[in-house]
Amino acid sequence: MAGLTSSTIGRKYAMALSAIFLLIFLVMHLSVNLLSVFGEDAYNNASQFMGYNPLIQFVMQPVLIVAVIFHFVMGFVLEIKNQKARPVKYESNNPSHNSTWMSRNMIISGAVVLAFIFLHMYDFWFHEMNYKYIDGLPIEESRFWGDLHAKFADVWRVILYVISFILLGLHLGHGFQSSFQSIGARHPKYTPVIMALGKWYSILIPAGFIFIAIYHFVTQ
């Protein structure tokens, strides 16, 4: 890993791989949470499996946490190095024509998304760790749906989640295709396909999470 992150190309490659891993996780996370819309039992059963399966809890969960930390730290590192490599801006530069606003401000959207991740962990992950490992409470199969539903009773929390998911969508809009480009997946034949998939991914994934938040608010 040290060798992979010792050069600019290596850091970009490593960041792209962590991004692809997180893209896959978002699909899985959304799939489980959508079950809460279709029935309490389905969501409770899936959440209990995810919450008490040793492989998920003690292998996959730590890997996910490391991937999130690595991805955002590497993003900040690359941004700082890019700024140092170009201390003086080009005299004739028209950024609005040369690149999109989001591609120029990934560090800003990334910081907002990171702040939202901390909020999300405070709402759910810390509560879960406290329930299982600090308080040591027994398994209660029916509690998962109720906990999720109660979180979205507050309209301001729903609004905050909606805004955060919109910014996540903007971040994904550029990050999806950029990740594949960084690992060399760039060709006239399949680059348009990757860009199209990235566009739909950046719309459907945030829209799905927004739908879940609004659903639980309006069904209080």
Automatic annotation (TrEMBL):
InterPro entries referenced in this protein's UniProt entry, alphabetically: Cytochrome_b-558, SQR/QFR_C/D
Record-linked CDD domains: SQR_TypeB_2_TM
Q: Does the keyword Transmembrane apply?
A: yes
- Gene Ontology CC terms: membrane
Which terms are listed as keywords in the entry? Membrane, Transmembrane, Transmembrane helix
Q: Where are the transmembrane segments?
A: 12-38, 58-80, 101-122, 155-176, 197-218
| Protein name, per record | Succinate dehydrogenase / fumarate reductase cytochrome b subunit
Lineage at the top is: Bacteria, Pseudomonadati, Bacteroidota, Flavobacteriia, Flavobacteriales
